[in-house]
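We emphasize that the prediction below concerns an isolated chain of 321 residues; any contacts that depend on oligomerization or on bound cofactors are therefore not represented. The input was used exactly as deposited, without trimming of termini.
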Amino acid sequence: MKITPFFRFLTLACLLAAVPAARADYKQAVAFYNQGQFAKAIQELKPDLDRSPEWEFGHRLLGLCYLNLGNNALAVSSFARAAELQSTAFATYYGLGQAHFNMRRYADSVTALGRAETLAAREKNPEAEKTKVYKLRGAAHYRLKRFDAAAADLERALRNGSGDWTDRSMLGVSYLNTNRTDEAIAELERALAQKPGEPTVREAMGKAYFQKGVAALRRKEYAAAAQALGKAREYDSRNGYLHYNLAEAYLFQNRYAEAERALGEAVRLLPENPGVHARLGLVYEKQKKWDPALEAYRKADSLSGSKELKEAIERVTENKK
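Result of the prediction step, given as a token string:
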């Protein structure tokens, strides 16, 4: 997440309201900052900060300069110093949260953004500032795998009209990881509408439909399971377990030919899985295809022998006579 010129302008407006009039050089530093000349702004600030290390505004502006230059470590140091000096500026804590986020210190980012949220009400456009907090903090929670918290923040950010396909994708995956499968699918569809064909979103969509299909199988809702798993296959056809579970849904509907085709794909993708071969043997047996059934059962038995498989081999052998 990058700091945009628009963010800089809004931050600057907040900064100007709190500048001590006694500082002679701050106007030039602010002018350089507003022009995007951050290194020059730092040069203007340093002498005053050396003379007055308790100057909260100077540390805050210095942090913003470092943040825009991509020096996140120095940005953290400057913002933290401003916070030590009892800064009550939204920009201090939002900037600190952004710098920590950029350094992948996500827990520290969440802490700083919590303080920023409480100060947003003092800004000219508090809802817009809160939305920025929710968007960034949601991303931090997401990377910490705190999916409930991520969903709560990303929902609020999107509700306020701020969000792109990455936000919707993160929200969809957060829903998926908290077993809100239908909501996950809906949000991931919105992400794909914004970024058609995006591989990461398609992968997540495949997982969502797979999860939905497996849940339907557990409830013995076989038609619904087949529908969901068939949809999952459109997004993730390389998942052998998907084909196996799709075959299960077909099998319990007596759709043996379709189950056979699905298990054929599962065998191709999971050639050393005895359960797949055993299930294929059963599907062949249901269709009275004795030779392929025997071959499948024997393959399963060679991979992981069991009493049930030996009984199946004997049963099919007897039926062949």
